[in-house]
Structures are given as structure tokens and as C-alpha cells.
Design goal:
Layout lengths: L2 H8 L5 H20 L9 H12 L4 H11 L8 E8 L5 E8 L2 H14 L3 E2 L9 E10 L2 H10 L4 E6 L4 E6 L4 H12 L6 E8 L8 H15 L4 E6 L5
Antiparallel strand pairs: 1-2, 1-3, 2-8, 4-6, 4-7, 5-6
Helix pairs in contact: 2-3, 2-4, 6-7
């Protein structure tokens, strides 16, 4: 079904473990946004936007509320963002975004994942130049109507895809993600987005021809998924 389907599928919580990972990821982002300003989304635009993305990812209200309340406490947890880059089998590339209170521990855990999967952790910048930071919105609707709404709001749509499930997936500059969301909801009211997020998308996708290579990359992704500090993993393989 193409790139739009893969992007949407990757954002869906299909299992309890996947849901737990998503809740943890957004919990940290909500906590950080609330801690860095007023812990009220009506007075903290950053917090409001993180909550909107969390809701699109089907994060429950109690998880959102719990992390806002946590930020109101006296204990201050400091999380640091890091990105790790590396190489998998068959010319595949991997980006790993983390959010951690201990960067040394996180680096050791990420390196261990690459080593166990017989993949190579590289230096900063070794593969990220092959990816583009992109705002993605996916919703059910009519492509022409959706594009008209964004045209009127002067949102520059980089690409658009529609599928036979009735979804329209829009690719915009990351800075235009919420400008596009606000424009669509101004026209159509509140929308349930299947995806509302900035993601790193590879400029070119590859296929892994051998089952051995696919299994090797899947092992790496499984190891990384088990690391609590890992927030997002991106790769350039389209046939996993």
C-alpha cells in the first residue's frame, strides 16, 4: 500500500508491549514539556502540542494527566536527547533517538544492541544526512478537500498520498505540522488523526533480498525496542 500505509502502521499500538513503549515515550515528552514551563496546556503551547501528538498516538488521558502531575512535584528529572546512527545488513541504515537521564548508560545499551545483532554503530552524522525531518498527518478524508484547506492556509505540502482505506497522508515541513493541523480543524472541526508527528524519513528506501538479512535487522530492532531510553528508531528498509 506504499509509504503512507507503512508510516501509519508503524504508529499503531498493535500489542500491549508496543502500547507500553508508546506510553513511556510520550510520558517523558509530556513531563519535559510540563516541567520546562507552566504545567497547564492552556498556558504552555509546547505542552499542548505534545499532548495533541500523544492523543493521536492513542495515549490514554490518565497517562497524560499522571505525567503532568508528576511535573508539578519537587523532584526534577533531567532527560537528555541523543541520536545514534549505524549500519545494518545489506546497506541498511538506522537512526536511534533516545531520551535519557544517563547518556553513558544509554550509549552502552544501544552499542550492546548493535553488537548483539552483528551490526555497526557509527559516528554522529554518518547516515542522518540521508534522512529528512518531515511532518506527517494522516486522516480519513477527501484528498482534494484536504489540499484546498491547506492551500488556503498557505501550508506547503511536500507530498500527499491517498489509499483505498480512505486515508489521506500529508507530508509537510516539520515546522508546519501544527499549522496544517489547525487549518484542517478550522475547516472540518476536531479530527481524529491516525498520525500526527514529525518523523525522520529516508530519502531512498532499499529492500533486503535475503531472509537472513531481514532477520538480522529485525533482531536489532527488537533489541532496541527493549531499551527503555529509546524513543524512536528509523531505518530505510521497506520490506520488513
Amino acid at each position: 500500500m506504499g509509504r503512507a500505509h507503512e508510516v501509519r502502521a508503524a504508529s499503531m499500538a498493535a500489542t500491549a508491549a508496543k502500547k507500553t513503549k508508546i506510553y513511556s515515550r510520550y510520558g517523558k515528552e509530556i513531563y519535559m514539556a510540563a516541567k520546562s514551563g507552566v504545567p497547564d496546556p492552556n498556558m504552555n503551547q509546547t505542552l499542548k502540542r505534545v499532548i495533541e501528538k500523544a492523543k493521536a498516538a492513542q495515549v490514554p488521558a490518565d497517562v497524560i494527566k499522571r505525567n503532568i502531575e508528576k511535573a508539578k512535584g519537587s523532584n526534577a528529572e533531567a532527560y537528555i536527547e541523543n541520536r545514534y546512527e549505524g549500519f545494518g545488513p545489506g546497506g541498511s541504515t538506522i537512526l536511534v533517538d533516545t531520551l535519557s537521564d544517563n547518556s553513558n548508560r544509554t550509549l552502552a545499551e544501544v552499542r550492546s544492541c548493535f553488537n548483539k545483532a552483528h551490526c555497526n554503530l557509527g559516528k554522529a552524522g554518518c547516515v542522518s544526512y540521508q534522512y529528512d525531518n518531515t511532518g506527517i498527518l494522516s486522516l480519513k478524508g477527501n484528498e482534494e478537500e484536504v489540499l484546498d484547506s491547506l492551500l488556503m492556509a498557505e501550508v506547503d505540502v511536500l507530498d500527499v498520498e491517498s489509499d483505498d482505506e480512505g486515508y489521506v497522508t500529508l507530508y509537510v515541513a516539520p515546522t508546519d505540522l501544527f499549522k496544517a493541523k489547525d487549518a484542517l480543524e478550522a475547516d472540518k472541526g476536531e479530527i481524529e488523526f491516525a498520525v500526527l508527528e514529525n518523523k525522520m524519513l529516508p530519502q531512498e528506501y532499499i529492500t533486503l533480498d535475503s531472509e537472513e538479512d531481514r532477520n538480522q535487522l529485525n533482531r536489532l530492532l527488537t533489541y532496541l525496542d527493549d531499551v527503555d531510553d529509546v524513543q524512536q528508531v528509523y531505518h530505510n528498509v521497506e520490506n520488513l
